[in-house]
Design a protein that fits this description.
Elements: E1 37-49, E2 56-66, E3 74-80, H1 94-101, E4 106-110, H2 120-125, H3 131-161, H4 163-166, E5 168-178, H5 180-190, E6 210-214, E7 231-236, H6 244-256, E8 261-266, H7 274-279, H8 281-296
Parallel strand pairs: 3-4, 3-5, 5-6, 6-7, 7-8
Antiparallel strand pairs: 1-2, 2-4
Helix pairs in contact: 3-5
Length: 298
């Protein structure tokens, strides 16, 4: 068994009343007590300018609810796919969205705007050295990262605006993601001062109550401050795509600001995002569900 660098945020089972019959000893929001999840797919949550052409594009999500659930008010969990801000779509998180809906959450897998030609990975690796080119690509990369954040914040506002229809508790909304999606989830948690103007529900709050990061960090750590969302960071020391130093700096800055930033760090491990999650799924799900129960007050 691999030793973990950081504290494993596991807590004891919490006694929660379930709204459907699960096997004896199971707990809502922790165990998959619902046999199925019902999906509503392709729902438009906003329209925004394409990052390359500027033409308006519809942004869509898939929603998942616990099959047969009778609870009147459920926490929401928004999942954001990875892909370097240049590839991927919402189907990449449909499996985990389904599994967490079976735990009793109302979950959402989302699309967001991408820039297929961005060179964010080359910037991080230090490959681009020409000053003018570096400045141009840095601006382009930041634009893609911030656009993803604004789109994800639009989803939060959309969920709050449609809370009654989905039987969501608007005071209990969390966001999780993988790789670029993890960066986005953390930025939504840490950058509520920049909510953007995507979507039709600007009057609704875009803040979240918890953020989950699988191989992510924030590249804008100066924005972390008191009052930001608690976060959980899963990361491998030898991650080749989102460097471990960035994740550690994110957690350290959050701690310095007095925030909750739980970590599960794996030394001498090169696994990234979805693969890292799959390799340690049982431990990670136990940690993430305990974190959500604690931070959402479930």
């Amino acid at each position: 068994m691999m030793r973990k660098l950081g504290p494993l945020a596991l807590v004891g089972a919490v006694a929660i009343t379930v709204a459907a019959c699960g096997p004896p000893g199971t707990t809502r929001y922790v165990d998959r007590i619902f046999a199925t999840a019902t999906a509503t797919t392709g729902v438009r949550y906003a329209t925004a300018p394409d990052l390359v052409t500027g033409a308006p594009v519809d942004l869509r999500l898939d929603a998942f609810q616990p099959g047969g659930d009778t609870a009147a008010s459920r926490p929401a969990l928004i999942w954001v796919h990875g892909g370097g801000f240049l590839a991927g779509d919402r189907t990449g998180t449909n499996q985990i969205a389904t599994e967490y809906a079976q735990r009793g959450y109302v979950t959402f897998s989302i699309d967001y705007r991408l820039d297929p030609g961005n060179r964010c990975a080359e910037l991080q690796a230090g490959i681009i050295t020409n000053p003018a080119e570096k400045a141009r690509e840095t601006a382009r990369c930041r634009a893609a990262i911030v656009a993803a954040q604004h789109d994800a914040q639009a989803v939060v506002r959309w969920v709050r605006a449609n809370a009654a229809a989905y039987r969501v508790d608007p005071s209990r909304i969390a966001m999780g993601g993988f790789s670029a999606g993890a960066i986005t989830a953390l930025d939504v948690g840490y950058r509520s001062n920049d909510p953007g103007d995507v979507g039709d529900f600007d009057a609704n709050d875009s803040r979240i109550q918890a953020a989950i990061s699988a191989s992510g960090c924030t590249y804008l750590p100066e924005d972390i401050g008191p009052g930001d969302a608690p976060a959980y960071l899963l990361h491998a020391e030898w991650d080749p795509y989102v460097y471990f130093s960035c994740a550690k700096d994110t957690a350290d800055r959050a701690h310095a600001a007095g925030l909750v930033a739980d970590t599960m760090f794996f030394p001498h491990d090169p696994a990234h995002a979805d693969l890292l999650y799959v390799l340690h799924k049982a431990d990670v799900d136990a940690a993430w569900t305990a974190f959500l129960v604690r931070q959402l007050g479930l």
